Amino acid sequence: MSTKLLKRIGKLFSDDLRYQNRKKEGKAAGSLVLLSAFLCIVLCSLSTNPWFVSCILTALLLRLALMPPEEIAGVMKATLAGAALAALITLPAVFTGSPRTLGTVTMKTAESVMLLAIVSEQLGWKGMTSAAVSLHLPDLFLLTLNTAVRYLHLLGRFAARISEAVSLRQVGEKNWKTSGTGGIIGTTFLKAQRMADRNAEAMACRCFDGTYRTLARHSFTWHDAALLAADALAVVLFVYLQAIAV
Amino acid sequence: MKLDAESKALIQLDKVEFSYPGYEEKALDGVSALFFPGRCYTIEGPNGCGKSTLFRILLGLNFPDAGTYLFDGKPVTKAAMKNSRFARDFHKRIGFVFQDSEVQLFTQSVEDEIAFGLYQLHLPEEEIREKTEDYLKRFDLESVRDRAPFTLSGGQKRRVALAAVFAMDPEVIVIDEPLAGLDEKGQRWITDFLKNRKDSGHLLIVSTHNRDFAGVIADVHVYMAEGKIRRIAEEVLSCRK
Q1: pTM here?
Q2: CB-CB under 8 Å, A129 with B108
Q3: Is A186 exposed, middle or buried (0-12, 13-18, 19+ CB in 10 A)?
Q4: How many domains does chain A have?
Q5: CB of B101 within 8 A of CB of B95?
Q6: Mind listing the domains of chain B with CATH numbers?
Q7: Do B146 and A23 touch (CB under 8 A)?
């Protein structure tokens, strides 16, 4: 692994813009979005009628078409990657007498990945946490989730900066690739440990007793009503198409 | 006379000694001092003189190997801090702003950062919201309320860290190098802010290398070197005015 690769990984994690540009609160409630996504994925997994998955995929593509271009690109990248991987894994099924499996699994995978990517783009980090709070997930879970996201960002930024510093000093004939990489990983690890200690102390200094809440508040909007209607429609469609399939 | 002064001191250190595990030399060597409410103390001295260690002792993050540390007349010891009620009451009364604000900001948004400490105090939800709004306004953070604290600039992070600590309204505020990494505007803002807080009756203990800054805000200058307090100098208030 070269320092260039480490620098890219670091920059990937430290990409501020994903957090800075998110101002999407005030639409559908995060908890409702998460539950709807879960429902959709479960229905698609249970469905034996390919028309149902096709309908859901069509609805998702319609939703995707209403999103900004950079978000569409992000969702499509994840979807295509997931679908390609699923197709690759199920490819042997074509040669073992079950060619439909390839299409079914690939479509279901594409649907699930696309749905999760849209939810991720729509909610963002803060929305996810607020949704988790609404769903009464344990405080410890939320704290762990937030700390993990934050550390990915901070340590990613740290690693990217060290990589830059190392690459600036990569002069002459000596091969820095291996020694430089080891140094960066080691230093980042030590930094992480130090930050975790400081973090724990900061929390203790602010009387942390396990309570971890968020101030986000959401009132019922027409977005919520539309989402609930879509959920109901999906359930009706699922039942109808299953009945036809039987 | 001495006993009278001690009884009014909120923090009393008496011949405090401390060494870090694995090191023979003492990080603090016989430190004695009294800290009174409504005053600002600047702790000055070269790097490695024991300022940060003194702060860790004051905050109950480390404990003296010898000597005593009394906070409002009660000894702050490892055994006492194991009592969660004592530790909670103690930390409620003494706030700390780290030199590197980033390590003390751990929530997903600026408003949640301010509310974090208030939730720990188990205040009613409405009061938490009101206080959070109030401190967002006071610290001019309304425009970044939804932003993750670690995506802010250095000056904004420092303001968030201060707001998060001051919202809990502690009696004692310990600040490590408040001007570090700030531009001129940020430094001016912090200086004015700390002057105001001192006037409102808080006990401020501030470490700094900046003599000008210390001259502006300090009532008492504490000079440290090699783990010892070398000199305590009180400002002559009339001269400063």
Answers
A1: 0.76
A2: yes
A3: exposed
A4: 1
A5: no
A6: 2-240 (3.40.50.300)
A7: yes
